[in-house]
């Protein structure tokens, strides 16, 4: 007998869980669905969510607190700067530049603190595929010379197509070398990035990002 859920919110959550159980939940919605379904107060729905879409865990294997609670935790921007710039862990600086005008695989973050508040920054890190700007759409190109390659198209002309990969490498092809192209609805930014940080490191990184504003000189941030 199928369980019935009186609250519309739990009906919606269980529809998401049904999609996950049948393998039909789109990959780009998985992180959002994880947050939504585990937020249920219905014990049956919550138990089902924990089984099908386990809650996020941080590097120290602790269950990540909801964003609403993370917002109240104090962060240290200097510690966050070090996490951002480290070559281990989340490796933020390998894809995001803090220098005005410089482009890497991901968006430039030189003034991100002037554009997004703390909650939006947490959401962007935890659910990177939830909102992708068109210039950062990810494409999968099937090529005659290198097989399938994935990245962001930075140039698309009758003479040449240039693809920037997640490592920052630029691959150039003649249009005749490309047999097909399709858009991926996943961001180049890893969906499980939170697994590379402790919950406190995540809070510190967000605190650091809030200091990167248009009205501040950022040379100290990239030292």
Concise account of the structure shown:
By secondary structure, the protein is an alpha+beta fold. The protein is built from 7 helices and 5 strands. Helices cover 30% and strands 14% of the residues.
Describe the structure.
The chain is α+β, with helices and mostly antiparallel strands. The protein has 3 domains: 8-52, no CATH class; 67-128 and 190-222, Cytochrome Bc1 Complex, Chain D, domain 2; 134-184, SH3 type barrels (Roll), CATH 2.30.30. Helices cover 30% and strands 14% of the residues. The chain has 7 helices and 5 strands; from the N terminus they run ααααααβββββα. The protein has a 5-stranded antiparallel sheet with strand order 4-3-2-1-5, with no helix packed on it. α1 (8-22) crosses α2 (30-38) and α5 (77-85) crosses α7. The relative contact order is 0.17. The model has no long low-confidence stretch (mean pLDDT 86).
Can you tag this structure with a few keywords?
alpha+beta, single chain, SH3 type barrels, globular, Cytochrome Bc1 Complex, Chain D, domain 2, 223 residues, 30% helix, 14% strand, 7 helices
Rg to the nearest angstrom?
A: 20 Å
Question: Which CATH architecture of the largest domain?
Answer: Orthogonal Bundle
User: Could you say which structural class the secondary elements and strand pairing correspond to?
Assistant: alpha+beta
Oligomer: single chain
CATH superfamily of the largest domain: Cytochrome c-like domain
Total of domains: 3
Largest sheet: 5 strands, antiparallel
Helix content: 25-40%
C-alpha termini separation = 62 Å
Question: Regions with pLDDT < 50 over 5+ consecutive residues?
Answer: none
Strand order of the largest sheet: 4-3-2-1-5
The succession of helices and strands, N to C, reads HHHHHHEEEEEH
Strand element count: 5
């Amino acid at each position: 007998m199928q369980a019935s859920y009186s609250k519309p919110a739990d009906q919606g959550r269980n529809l998401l869980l049904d999609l996950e159980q049948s393998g039909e939940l789109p990959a780009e919605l998985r992180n959002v669905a994880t947050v939504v379904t585990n937020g249920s107060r219905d014990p049956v729905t919550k138990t089902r969510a924990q089984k099908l879409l386990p809650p996020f865990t941080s590097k120290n294997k602790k269950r990540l607190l909801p964003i609403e609670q993370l917002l109240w935790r104090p962060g240290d921007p200097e510690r966050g700067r070090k996490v951002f710039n480290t070559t281990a862990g989340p490796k933020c600086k390998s894809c995001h530049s803090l220098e005005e005008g410089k482009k890497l695989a991901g968006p430039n973050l030189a003034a991100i603190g002037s554009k997004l508040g703390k909650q939006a920054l947490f959401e962007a890190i935890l659910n990177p595929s939830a909102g992708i700007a068109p210039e950062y759409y990810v494409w999968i190109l099937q090529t005659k010379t290198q097989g399938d390659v994935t990245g962001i198209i930075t140039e698309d002309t009758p003479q040449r197509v240039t693809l920037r990969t997640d490592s920052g490498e630029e691959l150039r092809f003649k249009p005749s070398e490309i047999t097909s192209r399709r858009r991926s609805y996943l961001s180049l930014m890893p969906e499980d990035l939170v697994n590379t940080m402790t919950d406190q490191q995540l809070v510190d990184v967000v605190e650091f990002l809030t200091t990167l504003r248009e009205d501040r000189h950022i040379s100290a941030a990239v030292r």
